Amino acid sequence: MNTQDMRIPRADASQDKSAAKVSGKARYAADIPANGALVGRILRAKIPHARIVSIDVSQALALEGVAAVCTGADCPAPLGGAATEFPLARDKARYRGEAVAAVAARDEATAEQAIRLIRVEYEKLPAYFDAKKAMGEGAEAIHADKPGNILREAHATSGDVEAGFAAAELTREKSIKFGEVNPAQLEPNATLVEVGRDGGLILHAATQAPQDVRACVAQGLGMDEAQIRVENAYVGGGFGARSECAPFEIIAALLARKAKRSVRLKQTREETFLGHRGRPETHVAVKLGMMKDGRFTACQVQTTQTGGAYASRSAADGAAPGLYALHARQHDLLRACANLPPCGGAAGAAESIAGVEALINEMAGELGLDPLAVRALNAPRELADCLEAVKQASGWAERRGQTPKGRGLGLACGRLTEGDDGGVAALALEVSVDEVTGKATAHKLWIAAHVGGALDPRAAESRIRTGVWMGLGRALSEETRYVDGKMLHGNLLDYRMPTLVESPDVEVVVIGAADAAPADASPVDPRTGANWAAGLSAAVMPALMGAVHEAAGVWPHTLPLSPDRVSDLLDARDRVKK
Amino acid sequence: MKSILSVTVNGRRREDAIPDNLLLIDYLRDGLGLTGTKQGCDGGECGACTVLVDDEPRLACSTLALQVQGRRVETIEGLAGDGDLTPLQRAFQDKLGTECGFCTPGMILAAEALLRRNPHPGREEIKQALSGNLCRCAGHAQIVAAVETAAESRKNETAMEGAR
Ligand code: FES
Ligand code: FES
């Protein structure tokens, strides 16, 4: 930063940035002009799990117009010190789509042709696409240092869980499957690497972690960090995909250094999906003990994630903080690795909360209690305030049980971020279910969030809306799909995120915001650097499940609640009735 | 094969010899340096590349440059020209309708087309008109509010002009 920049107050700087965004002047990585830059392209593995026997690049290199070809041999340093992930696969390819080689050529057509001329000999290995099979008896280890294909394990217990369940008047269990979700940031991955006269590199990168990119590129290329500069003036979203250096940034740098020329590496939407680092498919098994008046006595959560072949280095720890003043708790987390694109570091805290919230709704129903009152009975002060605010805003008392046929009202709570520190929220959601098509439609959502001070209320509200918006996507339509590890969702039509038409009216009550820097529309909480989407999705999903139950009389167990899933539930319901 | 394209871009007439298979988005971005038009997908999925062709929204990624022969093309850069931001652009800024900003040019142009066609759209019309434009960050409310605010300020401007 030069001295001139430092004189601009923060609010003005963010005004300048938003002015650039609305006028088209904001330059994202793919917008930086680069006359004469070479075009980079990546060759990706077509087999989900294989030993790489040999790679022959001679024909590609001989092609006129090809300036550089790189393979794993060019980069022996693992990505950011991770144990086994390399920018370009070395001994093994562990998922379909993993980068195996890369070329830089004078134009797109030449680069494409060169990619096709690279010969890779693979030796196929058994591949696993769900946690159970990956962890099964005798399964081939995806990573030599991870026997049993367990990537991570965490266990946390507090209080006397056994005694808690023994004291309970009602104990119930429920299993829920949450689909894998992709960050789907709107800006496709892109990097431009310029080579300075002194051999230094300038990366224009679509990253939210310029320091990490700098460190990882330096490490990957065996260069001094002082020789590397990373620019990221504008970044088109991240949501976990860009919070650390991704392999392609190092690949682009490797190509540029080898070719001694600038290289532009743009990725397709499909490749951007492959970069992933989103939330893995997660199974949550919950057991909850309750007294007849709704007081909780004990809670047990077992979370199993089907992680990708690799995980983000910035992994969250495993202990999922509960929402309620409940002492007897046990939480076990298991993350398996599978032959799928790399997942983010989330430890399933949001899914764990969502599972508990869903079961609370079911048990309150069974006991004939108001789910809002049950929560208020167990909630610490801040959450109780949120519940009261949602009760008022939504007219909960009058509306509940009074919605017209085919409509329902659901409720749930969540945290703003996944850790202990970010505030809590309660929300109510009105939904209709189309009995013919199985389509669930969200009509209105009321949310009250205790944001925990030091935040501009307007920015907080904006962040809440963003979180709710993403939560609805996850609840209703977003989900990745693979067949034998082949991605089926690699475009923005098959990966269905919500559009404006599907977005309900959202009423936001912000509690406890005070004294903060002027509003900027950054989707992340300046205090934690996290967005609120994961945390709020934990509330949106069970609220939707509760609303669907009131509307159609079925309790869902698999998310997202796409029309085919709802139809299946309705069919099962009707079979029982007959 | 190359052909001559005559087209008006952001108010300026131009003639360029271009390959027949050149896409409008590449003509604008690589040929003219108008990088405000964004590419968010592999074709026709996201709306980030929306430009105006004779006042109508068009996906530049799914249009051949030669298809706009003799037509009037407007990109985000042309909306305000060298002058101040338009009320619509300002409304996106004020109502926090832009976060990461990547969808913003396409979103604004889709909204601009709506407001030219229908200066006083209802909320549902706004949502419909923008439903082909994906935004991953901003909640819909901020975007809809921005368009409503812009429509309102256009109304006031016209009222003032009428009073003069
Ligand atoms: S770039 Fe996505 S629709 Fe044109
Ligand atoms: S502001 Fe980021 S995609 Fe719309």
Model description:
The complex is a heterodimer of chains A (578) and B (164). Chain A is an alpha+beta fold and 578 residues long. Among the domains of chain A are: 29-125 and 183-275, Aldehyde Oxidoreductase, domain 4 (2-Layer Sandwich), CATH 3.30.365; 370-578, 2-Layer Sandwich (Aldehyde Oxidoreductase, domain 4), CATH 3.30.365.10. Helix content of chain A is 31%, strand content 25%. Chain A has helices at residues 3-7, 10-23, 58-62, 108-117, 131-134, 161-167, 210-221, 247-259, 269-275, 349-367, 371-378, 381-394, 396-399, 457-476, 533-552, 563-577; strands at residues 38-44, 50-56, 66-71, 92-93, 99-105, 119-124, 150-158, 170-178, 190-195, 201-205, 228-231, 263-266, 281-290, 296-307, 329-337, 407-415, 424-433, 440-450, 482-483, 486-487, 505-511, 558-559. In chain A, the strands form 5 sheets. Chain A has a 7-stranded mixed sheet with strand order 3-5-1-12-9-10-11, sandwiched between helices. A 6-stranded mixed sheet of chain A has the order 7-15-14-13-8-22, with helices on both faces. Chain A has a 4-stranded mixed sheet with strand order 16-17-18-21. In chain A, helix 7 (210-221) crosses helix 8 and helix 11 packs antiparallel against helix 12. Chain A is globular. Mean pLDDT of chain A is 92; it is low at 1-10. Chain B has 164 residues and is an alpha+beta fold. Chain B has 6 helices and 5 strands. Chain B has helices at residues 24-31, 76-79, 87-94, 104-117, 123-129, 140-163, and strands at residues 2-9, 12-19, 50-53, 56-59, 72-74. In chain B, helix 3 (87-94) packs antiparallel against helix 6. Chain B is globular, with a radius of gyration of 16 Å. At the A-B interface, helix 2 and helix 14 of A face helix 2, helix 3, helix 4, helix 5 and helix 6 of B. Residues 98-104, 135-138 of chain B line the site of one FE2/S2 (inorganic) cluster (FES). Chain B: GO terms for molecular function: 2 iron, 2 sulfur cluster binding; metal ion binding; oxidoreductase activity. Chain B: Keywords: 2Fe-2S, Iron, Iron-sulfur, Metal-binding, Oxidoreductase. Chain B: It comes from Rhodoblastus acidophilus. Chain B: This is 4-hydroxybenzoyl-CoA reductase gamma subunit. Chain B: Residues 3-79 form the 2Fe-2S ferredoxin-type domain.
